[in-house]
């Protein structure tokens, strides 16, 4: 039996059946929506796709009418703009994710390029499989983070599609609803149907199911849409993580980096420091102002123990740059809005466009460092985060970004010395807090977490640069040298 046989039979709903069903359905939808809003522990994405001219827009409008539209956002992204193409493909979808308690209705979803490729006369099967794999990964991660997904495919027979298009065109009041692609669907209906069947089969999952909506009859389309959304709102299933499997997937084969193996005695005297710092800064300044750099997004990530000198290293970088060209972001505990989204959401908002630089003072690695050690994240959350982070960074790299990750490492004795200096200095006392002293007591736990992080996220495309920083001058020069050489190679 064909996936679309039932929908292409163009079933009808008798007029006297529709009204009582609609009244009952509207009440149930509102109740389920308000329960979701009050709990604010999950959100819902409704993906609307289908044969052009099947009535997706009307269905979305009806949902906004039946439910409380204040908690619904309808997003129609259309074709990617030139700016969109300068970023990873999924970025614009990350930007539209609903906060917990809310609903998003999305047209032109992340499935579109899969359907488009499958509908070509000579589709590339490798590209199709790659798109499908990326979609499965994206959706599974969203569901694990508390976002439900229901995907609706609106379908009708070839004849019904042409008839509906002709009727809409014949009426000046509805002709605007028909796009150029709608009038050509009947000519390539079989190819579009086969492409849809393939795309749906490759991306259907219990946690993110596809539902076929018969669309020839307006009333049946409305009722079936409402029932699918109601079922999703009432469903409580999530993707079950297999932490060990995720961890193994993320393991790399590069030589292991371990903090205890670092040599912390490297130093520079004042003259060496001044000369080398000025030289590397000048090279970075020239690179950042070059024509070729306008095509490169640069992402710098700084992690390390408290008082390791991250801020000082960042200032030596920004000193050489045009302030309009970079954004330095200190990452602290997430806000209420950020907690209402998947943990990577706030970092997707800050990805630089080509020719710009984003510098993260702390980063997404907080999930496997402070959140792990302080038990803010559950074990299954931080254990699966290694693979999720690798996938995130791979998307950045594949879109053309240069991602450089630095860990500035100091010994416990050097940290204590710097803490004491900060307490005694009127200009630095604000830098030392009770939290710093509390974190110091967890030194060994943080070292274990950092070593695990290196082992699982030190990838060939986005490697870790772990630098001994007992001597601040040596560390600052080393950071600049790494950046300059990596940018020169990238250009």
TrEMBL record:
Gene Ontology terms: biological process: polyphosphate metabolic process
Keywords, comma-separated and alphabetical: Transferase
Record Pfam families: PPK2
Family matches, as InterPro entries: P-loop_NTPase, PolyP_AMP_Tfrase, PPK2-related
Stretches assigned to the Polyphosphate kinase-2-related domain: 22-236, 268-489
Alphabetized NCBIfam families for the sequence: poly_P_AMP_trns
Protein name as it appears in the record: Polyphosphate:AMP phosphotransferase
Organism: Pollutimonas nitritireducens
